[in-house]
Specification:
Layout lengths: L1 H4 L5 H6 L1 H12 L7 H8 L3 H12 L3 H19 L4 H8 L4 H12 L3 H10 L1
Helix pairs in contact: 3-4, 4-5, 6-7, 6-8, 6-9, 7-8
């Protein structure tokens, strides 16, 4: 569909690109993996430089920014829909500890994960 519509930027364009699509599918399938620029470039069958430049030009953010945003999106869902501990959620979405997850969550979302969970449950 993206190809037929001439979509050249954004997530749909990236998903329709064979290399970028493989890298994005890997991120979505396993956000907890210790993804690096090198490992994602390998998934895309590109050099690190080409992958990084192509990803940024098509998606509009760096692979690291996208990965972080995806992890935090999954964490928001788990906080709102599950009773998993912060430690378990942290590991599920790719953080080594609840404290590193909490710092990243507060920086990315603007509120601590515990506060987010309470507010999501009362909404």
């Amino acid at each position: 569909w993206a190809d037929r519509q001439g979509v050249q930027e954004g997530l749909l364009a990236a998903l329709s690109d064979p290399g970028l699509g493989r890298a994005l599918a890997a991120i979505h399938r396993d956000p907890a993996e210790g993804w690096t620029l090198e490992s994602l470039a390998r998934k895309a069958a590109m050099s690190r430089t080409l992958f990084s430049e192509r990803f940024h030009s098509v998606v509009g953010e760096t692979p690291h920014q996208y990965l972080t945003r995806w992890r935090l999106q999954q964490a928001r869902r788990l906080l709102a829909e599950s009773r998993l501990s912060l430690e378990r959620i942290a590991r599920t979405v790719g953080y080594e500890s609840a404290s590193s997850f909490s710092r990243a969550f507060k920086q990315g979302v603007g509120t601590p994960p515990g506060t987010y969970r309470r507010e999501a449950r009362t909404a």
